[in-house]
Design brief:
This protein is mostly helical. It has one domain. Helix content is 84%, strand content 0%. The protein contains 8 helices and no strands. Helix 3 runs parallel beside helix 7. The radius of gyration is 23 Å and the shape is elongated. This is ABC transporter permease.
């Protein structure tokens, strides 16, 4: 009997792409299903995850606050402040630096830095923790005992990351403005005109949008990392692969959310595009 003919290269590539697309769709569907379970079971009494929630809050804040403050200050002082002040200084318009920082810090840097730090520090730790539990069959043991892993493990971690993202957005705003003050003082300019243009361009809507974007980032990061942690296969090596996949997916999601959210915000509120 003759052996089966090999597939042409184009057909093999098409099959590989189809399988990859199917895998992506399966992953997205699984994450959406986990998000629905978190909402349904998190709002259903009894609320037994209080101790775990406090432990996760303390853990995430402890490991993430310093990288967040350092990153927010460095990005505000370095790429943003030095470049913007050098350009505006050519025209003798350093007072307009406040308007630039309103866009840089409030609209973009604060929630973006929060998301990057939460995903890279806290998200990876959560994914590795749940992955290790899955490899050691602790989650299966919880199911045998009648304990829902989603309610007892995933829900407190999602609430903790969303809460910490809102808190860290405030810290990122403070650290970013501190970097702006250092830039102004470094250029021997008065702080009064800087803060005048900053508050003339700042609106409560942009601050609310910054908090909302940070909360969305926290929810997406927590769902992605928890899903990848609970789906670990292949032992300790599988935990490492899951963490890598979770970080890549989180960063791609951060970029997509930032683009869509900002476009919707500007499209529904044209006044935000008018310099004042």
């Amino acid at each position: 009997m003759a052996p089966p003919a090999a597939r042409p290269p184009r057909a093999a590539a098409w099959v590989a792409r189809r399988r990859a697309m199917r895998g992506v769709a399966f992953e997205i569907g699984g994450m959406c299903h986990l998000a629905a379970l978190v909402v349904a079971r998190g709002l259903r009494p009894p609320f037994i995850y209080g101790a775990e929630l406090l432990a996760q809050l303390r853990f995430v804040v402890t490991i993430s606050w310093f990288p967040l403050v350092l990153t927010a200050f460095a990005l505000s002082f370095g790429p943003a402040g030095i470049q913007a002040s050098g350009f505006l200084g050519l025209f003798g318009a350093l007072d307009r630096l406040g308007a630039a920082y309103e866009l840089i810090v409030v609209r973009e840097f604060a929630p973006l830095v929060t998301a990057i730090v939460v995903a890279g520090v806290a998200g990876t730790a959560i994914c590795a923790d749940l992955g290790a539990r899955e490899v050691q069959e602790e989650t299966d043991a919880l199911r045998v005992l009648g304990v829902d892993p989603v309610k007892s493990l995933v829900v407190p971690r999602v609430i903790a990351l969303v809460t910490v993202s809102l808190m860290f957005d405030v810290l990122a705003l403070i650290a970013g403005m501190l970097g702006a003050v250092v830039v102004v003082l470094q250029n021997h300019a008065p702080l009064g005109p800087f803060f005048s243009t900053f508050f003339n361009n700042a609106t409560p809507l942009e601050l609310e949008a910054s908090f909302l974007k940070a909360a969305i980032y926290g929810a997406v990061i927590s769902i992605v990392c928890c899903y990848k942690g609970l789906k670990v296969t292949g032992g300790p090596e599988g935990v490492g692969r899951a963490v890598n996949h979770a970080v890549v997916i989180c960063f791609l999601a951060i970029g997509a959310i930032d683009y869509v959210f900002t476009q919707l915000l500007l499209a529904t509120n044209p006044i935000l595009s008018q310099p004042r």
